[in-house]
Amino acid sequence: YGDSAVAGWAIIGRIIPVAFGAIYALSGIVGPIIGQNYGARSIDRMRDTLTLSLLVTALYTLAAWLALALLSGSIVSAFRAEGDAARLIILFCDWLTPLFLFLGALFVANAVFNTLGRATVSTALNWGRATLGTVPFVWGGGALMGADGVLIGNMLGGILFGSLAVVLCYRLIDELAASEKPAAVPEPAARS
Q: Which residues contact 183 (CB under 8 A, 6 or more apart)?
């Protein structure tokens, strides 16, 4: 799609870690909290930690979106972006930033899976996101909308795997909760 589109993607690649550094950090602290509560057999706190982490991810993403949308013109100017590069930066900042919520959810879920000894689930989700959640969406988006479609497809692919990760994560916590409950003791038979 040309040098300008590549430059736009490179700039977006520099924006993401700065704008979403807190979500990366959040995924780093979720694991120890989940691990501590798992060791204490406090399944409710594990569920609360996951829920609150996802809430923080959502609120932070919303704040980042607001900031990037307000600053998109300034970002374009700061990088002296023109043409496709400028258009892609504005597209990302103004419209696609909210979709980072799903990548953040995937990061949080990965931390939970890794902490609870389910690294293969984490690996499968990451591999799926990087292949099935990227390639078809990017190819399709590129065929339909050019460079804009590539960027849109890249972000849309995260919805599927971020959502799946959250569902599987809650399911794992529910399974752990069920295994922690003592078996029901049958009531003694009434004497006649």
A: none
